């Protein structure tokens, strides 16, 4: 964003003012509340939770649910996306089915998954998998279709078989865009898994923040809120960094769509 | 050219045939009893439940509830995004001041704000509106900021040369130029508005399809559950269709050759 490279001091003012204002307001006005906690107490709760391991254990469960679903749904979606792009006949034939199933909001399947799998990882894998499947399917299909046509001509000139063309030419050429798709699916998987845990599944960060709210522990609730934000931020930043180091500018151009 | 047309129609027909086949297989599996009808009702039963629900008016009310949550949350977020986004987008200093905060809030799973909203507002419709507005605001705000900050600088020069006033410049030059970005943000947000409405209804027991399918699942009334899921799919499809059509219509002037 800011290409200057030095720290954006101006940008620090707003978050700091928010935190300090909240602290001062709650301290000086002498408000006793079950809803809000001064930021200093939130930090204490956050450090306490991190030290006794509860926050990390919950994070591990959430990430397991997210990445398990991402792995299952994402890889299936990617495979099918490649097939759809390489064999247009299948793509055409499946169009109505895919377009009928895709707009079903993932959380609408929550009650179904609850009946079939009960509480636990099963339902989380299923719902996260559904979201990642369709996202990867659509993005992979357009990534593979977007491969430079001349490369296909080269493959034809070399008389490569369809499988060899896919493996040796199309996949390497669409790899940067596939990674962008993977990055988007990974952030989606975290969002969906926390949503599932907040709605029904009694495990992980989403359940922990709901319990903290119901136990009237605003300090712990806000600590989880900040922590969830940090986890999301780190995941995104890590994936962006990986994308930049692995693919450099090749993936960047696709992003500015 | 004609053969291409025939191919398109054949493809469309084949594609519907495949979908019909999938429904037929679903029916066969349900009839065979391999999967307990408790979990998987046939499409006939789900369809019957859908008709029954609309005849008695129950489903109509729930559908209306979900649409209402979606729409109001999305509307609040759209208005906020356009007002805040235009102010932030047009002034680089304001942009520098809010960017770090926005970068933190954007990847935050929107549903994480639900416990906070419940603490403040209880299990109410206001809570749902707040959560949906919060969840859909960031993508809209970021694309609006992008739209307002990337106005072709020469257009400003033209405005100055033509001696157009500040408000007039915004109305005639800046807004049309930022419109594609604003609308794209609004389109993307519709999907998350639907997801968040369903989640809020589930948690807070508000009138809507999210609550309806949850109760149906708890009572093991799976035809009702599947009817609700089908309706939600239809809402998802139609809402994004309507917004895309509105977008194309509003941006029609762009395609009429500059």
Walkthrough of the structure:
The complex is a heterodimer of chains A (257) and B (258). Chain A has a single domain, classed as Orthogonal Bundle (MetI-like fold). Helix content of chain A is 81%, strand content 0%. Chain A contains eleven helices and no strands. Chain B has two domains: 1-35; 41-255, MetI-like (MetI-like fold, Orthogonal Bundle). Chain B is 84% helix and 0% strand. The radius of gyration of chain B is 23 Å and the shape is globular. Chain B starts with a helix and ends with a helix.
Protein topology:
The complex is a heterodimer of chains A (257) and B (258).
Chain A: H1 9-28, H2 39-51, H3 54-86, H4 88-101, H5 110-117, H6 121-145, H7 149-157, H8 162-199, H9 204-214, H10 218-247, H11 249-255
Chain B: H1 2-32, H2 43-56, H3 58-90, H4 92-105, H5 114-121, H6 125-149, H7 153-161, H8 166-204, H9 209-218, H10 222-250, H11 252-255
Helix pairs in contact in B: 2-10, 3-4, 3-6, 3-8, 3-9, 4-6, 5-6, 6-8, 8-9, 8-10, 9-10
